Structure formats: structure tokens, C-alpha cells
Amino acid sequence: MRALVLILATALVAGCASERMPTRSGRPEVTIRGRTTEELKVYFVTDLGSRGYTVRNADPAAMIFEKQEKGSVALLVIGEKDRTAWNRVKVSIVNHRRGSHRVICQAFLVGNRGSPVEQVKEASGEWETIQAWLDRAKANLEPPPLSH
Fold first, then answer.
1. Which residues are CB-neighbours of 126 under 8 A, at least 6 positions away?
2. pTM of the full predicted structure?
3. Is residue 58 a part of any domain in this protein?
4. What string of pLDDT tens digits covers the 148 residues of the chain?
5. Residue 86 CA from chain centroid, whole number
């Protein structure tokens, strides 16, 4: 019996362990060189705006974008009072070293947005997609290497 309890406890803790990506933050991220914080901010505001997101916070250290979720995944977080679910994207631009910035991104599914019972579920299952999006942003933003 004691062995069964130990196995179940181990499984429970292992199931609760947070996932991490092989990046410094453990989240999707890239380091972009040769751009200012303002240039990066404008890029991400424009890119996410073209995808239907609105800016909720424009501070480059903690930008927040949201748009209404219309897919069936919304069923995971909709409440009795608020039947609307939202996609929330957080983008952090962090000064790194001489002319480079780390850009870290997280995505969430949100129910009962703005209420005392707001439900937030991180979309860690989408990390590969988010990382690919950040990799494309890096490719678009970084100057090409100098050729000899």
C-alpha cells in the first residue's frame, strides 16, 4: 500500500511540473541584434495587429495583446456569466547586450477576462508555433550578415 501511495504521489508531482523550452527563460524566445527597443515594439504591434490582436499594454517590457477566441478551444475557459474567451499574448523585450534584445513570448487562453474570477491557461502546447513565429520575426528584423 505504501508503495502505491509513493507511486501515485510521484506521478502527481511529475504531472504538475512545469514544462520548459531549451531557452534561457524556459519559454519561446529569440535574441535580435541591430534594432532598437522602439523598432522591435513597432514590429510586434504591427504584426499582431494584422492578426486581429489589440494592444492592452504597450510597455515593451510587458506588452499584452488580446483578441477574442472563436474556436471550440474557448470551451475550456468560458464562464457562466461571460461566454467569451480571449487569446492573450505577452511579449517582453529585454535589453541584452550592446545592440541586442531578448524577445520572450507567452500565450494564454483567458476566460472571465478582467473579472475577479479571471481564468488564465497558458498555451504551452503552442510553444513550437510561437517559437517559429519568433524565428521568422528575427529573420525579418536582423540585418543580413556582412559578406567578405
1. 107
2. 0.78
3. yes
4. 333 222 322 332 333 445 787 888 889 999 999 999 999 999 999 999 999 999 999 999 999 999 988 766 666 666 666 677 889 999 999 998 888 999 999 999 988 888 888 889 998 889 999 999 999 999 999 977 776 6
5. 13
Q: Does 19 reside within a domain?
A: no
Can you give the CATH number for the domain in which 38 is found?
A: 3.30.310
Check if the beta carbon of residue 55 is closer than 8 Å to that of residue 45.
yes
- Phi then psi for 77, rounded to 5 degrees? -130, -5
Distances (CA, A) of 106 to 12, 90, 145: 25, 5, 29
Say if residues 140 and 98 touch (Cβ distance below 8 Å).
no
Q: How far apart are CA 143 and CA 43, in angstroms?
A: 14
Number of domains in the chain: 1
Sign of the four-CA dihedral 17, 20, 48, 72? negative
Coil, helix or strand for 148? coil
